[in-house]
Structure formats: C-alpha cells, structure tokens
Amino acid sequence: MARLRSLNVGLPRDIPWRGQTVHTGVWKSPVQGRRMVRRLNVDGDGQGDLAGHGGEHRAVYVYQLDSYRYWQQWLGRSDFSHGQFGENFTIEGLPDDEVCIGDRFRIGGAVLEVTQPRVTCYRLGIRMDEPRMPALLVAHDRPGFYFRVIQEGEVGAGDEIVQIAAGPERMTVAATNALLYKPGHPRSELERVLRIPALSAGWRNSFQVLFDRADGGDVTGNPGLAGASGPPPAWTGFRPLRVSRKHRESSLVTSLTLEATDGHPLAPALPGQFIVLRLMPAPDVPPLLRSYSLSDEPSDTRYRLSIKREPHSAAGSYIDSVIQVGDLIETSAPRGSFTLAAGEGPVILVSAGIGATPVLAMLHALATAASQREVWWIHGARDGTEHPFAGEVRGLLAALTHGRSHVRYSAPRPGDRPALDFDAPGRLDVHVLQDLGVPRDADFYLCGPATFLAGFTTGLRAWGVSAGRIHSEIFGSGPSMTPGVVATPRKPPHPPEGPEGTGPLVSFARSNLTVRWGAGFNNLLELAEACEVPVRWACRTGVCHSCETGLVNGSISYEPDPLDLPAEGNVLICCGRPSGDIAIDL
Description:
The protein has 586 residues and is of the alpha+beta class. The chain has a 7-stranded mixed barrel. A 6-stranded antiparallel sheet has the order 16-15-18-13-14-17, covered by helices on one side. Strand 15 (274-279) and strand 16 (288-293) form a beta hairpin. Helix 5 (187-194) packs antiparallel against helix 6 (201-212). It is globular and about 80 Å long.
C-alpha cells in the first residue's frame, strides 16, 4: 500500500545565487499534524514563480522515497531530508514508471489527480547543490509528478494512498516525460497522450505542436519545447554577395540589393525572414555583425535589405557612407520564424518606422500571388521624410483585390499632405484598428520598437485576439526570461569585466557585441550573462530548450550533451561552448 510519509511546505524566500537574488519556494520542510490541501496548494505552502510552478494543475508536487534512495546511491550522498526535492508529498510507492497521467487517488480527506511530470528547472540544482540535477531527473526517468486537487481535504504523514480511478491510455509519468524531453516523439504516442483529459494545458500544448509537425520533413529539433524556428538555413556561415544596387528610400533609410557572385542561385527567403551581414570596416578590429530583415519579394537571384541610419550606429554609418555598388558583403542565409503563414483569412500588417521591412516582404508576396485575402497595411512614421516605401506600398496594395491602408504620422511637417501622404496624425494603437473596422479574427503581423510591440500585443490580447494569431518581430535583442531572478537595473551589453579572454571570438549579432571566449566560462550562457546580453533560460542543463538560439556561424561543442538536439542551425547556449569563432543570434 502506498503511503504519505512526509507532508512538506515552505513559503518563497530570497536566496543569493551567482551574484543575483532568486525568489523561490523550492525549500520545503516537514510539518507535524494535518493540513488542508486546497485547490492551489497546501496550507502554509507557496510558489515563488507562478509561471513555472503552482496553479490548479500543479497544486501539489510529489516525490518518491524510492527515488531518494536511488539518488543517494547514484550521487554518493547521505544528507537528504524530506522535502529535499521541493516536493509537498514525500511518498512510499507510486513510482514514475507505474503511476499514470489521469490516475486518481484518495489521501486522507482529499482526492487528487495526476496531471503532468515535473517541469525541471535550475532551482532544484540550487536546492540540491548539484547543478546537473534538472537534467538528471529527466535522463534517469525520475521526475516526480503533480497532482490537481479534485476534492479539498485534510492530509497528514502516515495517510494511506488509495487509487480510486485509473487514467485513460495508461501513459506513465516517466513515459510522458520522455515523450516530451527525449528524442523520438512517435506520432502514435503523441496521439495517445493527447487523448488524456487530465493532462495539464501547458504539456498538452507542447504535445500538440509536436503532433502537428510530426510529419514535417524539414522539422528538426524539438518544436514542442523551442517553438518554431523556421526551416534550416540554406547554408552555414557567411557567403560573399555583391552589392548590385544602392537606393535611398527616405532621409534615414537606404536599401542594398545583393546578388550572388559565383553563379549559384540564392535560397529564396520566406516573407519576413532576415539575414546577418558581417561587415569589415577595418582589418584590425572585430567585424560588425548586424541582422536586417529582407524587404522584397522572395527571389533566388537577389536579396534586398533596407537599413536605417541610427545616431551613433557604426554599421548604419558604414553602410550609408562607405559601402558602394560592386562591393562584396559577407552574408548569412535567410533565417527566422517571423514568416507569413498560408491561409485564406484576413492579414493585418502593422509596423512602425523601419519595422516596415519584414511586413513589406509579406506584402510583396501577397501581391505577387494575387492573393484574394483581405490585407491591411497599417504603418506609423514620424513624418513624410521618414516614411520609406510609400509609393511602393501603394502600388502593391493596388494590385490586391482586397488591399487597404492606413498611415499615421506622429509629427507631420507642414508639407505633409493629409489624405495623400498620410491618413491621420498621431500614433498607432489598437484603438485605431478598432475604429477602422479591422477584423478581429485576422492574423496580425507586428514589427517595430519594443515598446510599440509590447503595447500592441497587450492591446490585441485585451481585444480578444488569440495569442496564436499575433506574430511579432523585434529589432535588436529580444526580452530576457530569467525565471525567479529578482530584477535589477541592466546596462547595455558590454565586454565582460576582468582581463580579456584568449579564446575564439564570440559575436552576439543582435546585441552588436563581439568578445573573446575566456576559460572562466562554462558555457555561452555564462558569457552572455557576464556581458549583460539579454538571454532566456530555465533549466540551464540542456533539457528545456528555453535558451535555444540561432547559430549564425561557426561550430560548438556541448558539455553536458543535451537530451534532445536543437533545430538545425541553432545552439543550446546553456551547455554549448565555441569550437572556434562563432556568431549567435542574441
């Protein structure tokens, strides 16, 4: 008979970690007597990061004494105490390779249902003083599991655990965990797990993405964890392309058209993708790496990119003032997942400033295909001198049966003509779209400054637009995701403190920073953090793929090896190290 051996609770606390502060509830301690198990947690318990832990489907975390014994032997340790793994229930019995998603149990006065395996994260490594622990739980098929509370009630150490219902499909916790995190993802097993009603929403979404892409021939990596990353790049590293045309689009924007020099066709980009340029302003300084969206229709003979000259921009100034027709520029293959999806419904292209470039490529693709979809071009600029592509856009919209446009100038000049050059003064927001009668069931493609995107995304969600219909691209570094780390003021990206490293050059393409690798870093994530480059991570051990990033150039090695490799052309920076000079899309 399975039995509850220890009931453990703990409230979140702040702990020092790697020079930062982490707010976490992973420290749990046994309590005497009985406690109420409620819909969201046990009385006296709390979670520090509600995005990753807690909630209705993760109300109670369970770990088994058999796994305690396993890890004590495997790690050679004898210092464990109940609550060591951050669990609320330390139990005898119910091993992960026997208990199934959807199983229901009565413990004391409570009825509980198994909903998912543990989502492993770095905080367990802190609690265990063993950084590898998040990956070890998954690799050794001992993650533990979460309960949903079906009936609230009191429980206490010593209570018997009585199974009162069996989950459909008989998919064990260990098998469910392996299906998401380990290689393989058989379609038949994905079908099975998706038929389990008790499965939590987060895991269901991940499995649905894997299922939907299971037959895709070009799918690599684990889209259930990392999401869409676009198709693999057509070539690795950089290829020299010749500037065949240089054209001024506005007072601040210049377009370059690039063509092949070797007679081989280019790889047509998907509408919305970007390329990375490696510029060499001087032979004795590190190259400048910059990402620019392509702004023309897909082509196997040319790429057009349009660059805004920003104040104090080394790359923009070099392109504007130095680059000439006939020059060679080292260029990456097109990459990126911000692309126009197929469909028949309305398309809303929303941009501000130079954010017009990727959605302009989408407009070109729609016009070339003579699309019958309803297409809206919504753009914001400062004034007519900073309004590139105006005539080009009018011509493309005229070629569409259902093309419509609305342009706003935030600070129109006296010579800017209302109803001709622009439609209204002011800035764009979701209320503008509502007033125009833009259909809410459309696909929205957004590009522009970070604040513009944040405001529009929030506004669209509040308007009732589903998250799956909102697609966005940000220029420069993306937002950080550092779960549980208490926010502190951040500086712009900079070289790491201390003596310069002596290893390969590491270029953070979106952050406009190139530094040398140093022996004091265990992985690219640690180097990026030392440079205050915005990063995203959760497990820090090659399991969750939150840190998956584009590898633009070069090669890497792994320590430890990830459980499931990233998509082709990508790297897991939490366990990747440079094997030579590299460039990554951060």
